[in-house]
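Quick illustration, no need to memorize.
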Amino acid sequence: TLSKDKAFLAINPTGKVPALETPHGAVWQSNAITRYLARCGPAANLLGNTFQEQAEVDQWLDFSLNELEVSGTMLYYPAIGAVAIDGNTGAACKEAEGFFLAALKVLDEHLLLRTFVVGQSLTIADIALAAALFYPFKFVLDKGLRKQCGNVVRWFQFITAQDKFRAVAGDVTLCKKRVAMPKASAAGGAAKGGKK
């Protein structure tokens, strides 16, 4: 969502959400806000307990944004009307699905013997990844796809069952039937059944 409101643009010149107003100025971009909030409560060690863990947390935050969020949104945004559908949308969604499932496989292998993504306790890596997967689990990852990433499913259900996560996001609803992706169509034509 882009805002053209002058007051909002003074906080975030990109016009995009999220943006956070602090007593010392604005912070924008999801991962920057996440790190800022984690630093406000250092007793929780949400950033990692060592320099190595902190670097790994940063690594998984970048992975979440670049490998899961971008491709993941293309698997449900068209179906919920968050993006316009044109002749290229179906092909873009199919390509995004390949990227998303490959990233999910990386995370699944990483979680094989782990309860948390980094270290032995909850970090913002767990929170960011679970948040990035919240809607894919609701709209895309049906029973068949969940079978391919059992470690991610186990971890996701554990993280999202935490009282503090549930207080913000509510209860998780796992996908029963995947939302339909737009079909690839002739270049430049409107996708069949799509919105203009």
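Confidence is low (pLDDT under 50) at residues 188-196.
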